[in-house]
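Late entry, glycine complex.
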Amino acid sequence: MKILMIGSGGREHALIKKLLESDKCKKIYCAPGNGGIAKDAEIVNIGAMDKDNMVKFAKDNAIDLVFVAPDDPLAAGMVDAMEDAGIRAFGPNANAAIIEASKVFSKNLMKKYNIPTARYEVFDDPRKAIEYVEKENTVPVVVKADGLALGKGVIIAQTIDDAKAAIKSIMEDKQFGDSGNNIVIEEFLTGPEVSVLAFTDGNVVKPMVSSKDHKRAYDNDEGLNTGGMGTVSPNPYYTDEIAQECYDTIFVPTIKAMKAEGRPFKGCLYFGLMITPNGPKVIEYNARFGDPEAQVVLPRLKTDLVDICEAIIDEKLADVDVEWYDGATACVVMASGGYPLAYKKGIEITGLDEKGGVDGAIVYHAGTKLENGKFLTNGGRVLGVTAKADTLDEALDKAYDAVSKINFEGAHFRKDIGRTK
Ligand code: AMP
Ligand code: GLY
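Prediction complete; structure with ligand written out below:
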């Protein structure tokens, strides 16, 4: 098969490396890809949102399977565009990707179908939102922009004044553009967070092994929220008992709800969960593999990923036995100095071999480019250095050992991945 991966980050690199393990995969293209991906796939210079050129490329090159990995092209209907052209594509249609693209949609869905989540109200008028937070007068309070905002659209306000400022900056100053036309104001929950990615064909749902993301920029969960500074799998807080409860009260009801709404979800559905004192609750849904969750979950997948993708497209996931390796994985993200705020690009990375890897670990490239045979930094999150072992401690040791061999000016990584709540 000829496969086209759409996207350019560490997640896409992890997906490509897993797809290459399949006997069925003869050739992989990636649009637009990055410097490390260029060592595993043929790079295609088409932007991830360019539906017309992407469809044309897929047709001209007789692509058998298109894998749409990032949220924006999914929400913009990339899968629909491929299907309209008779091309098989993995990922939800736009009418299902809305589960991530609109928090108003997902909160209302959970309310309607009794899926546990934080209590909330929706506002389209900043004055009413401000009146509401003043009247409720409880902090912390969580203010969320409705639409996609590069993972930055959630503000946890510690004072009523901060909440009012957040409402103004999202709704009046349009900090996140039209994503802030509507907002959700919700109850602040506490407890460990768990990421569970799940395969689903719209009818059955098969959860993958659990993982844990570390979203804050600095050690001890300090600093700004990022796209994710590192992950481990399994998540130590996700017991078998909690997994069963999540399956019964969250996973299956969500898949049924989407089907009942005429929006069957096919692809990878990401459940961002919090294990609260009152049981597991949904913090957010994503319509795709998480990044860097994919980097720790996929190395543990035993079953052929191409077979799973095909079964999902054909709505035959019930027939596939999805199997996993025991043990544990850890991914440490090496980021550019300054990320998630301003950072420099184009800095040479040393310590990588010719293929962009190091001994003892898998190096997934997130923000790199290749120039004259050298790898240069080209994004905020640069590399996801990942290791697999029998235990989490060993996986962490191996990952940090590999990180110590890699360097670039300003490189920043967390030293406590897998060690915090
Ligand atoms: P989201 O983009 O919805 O995943 O939110 C980003 C992060 O904000 C989450 O990973 C949580 O750490 C935090 N968060 C979101 N909603 C809540 C909530 N209701 N209570 C506590 N923390 C939250
Ligand atoms: N790591 C969180 C996400 O992919 O949204």
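The chain has four domains: 2-91, 125-181, 193-319, 328-403. Will revisit in the morning.
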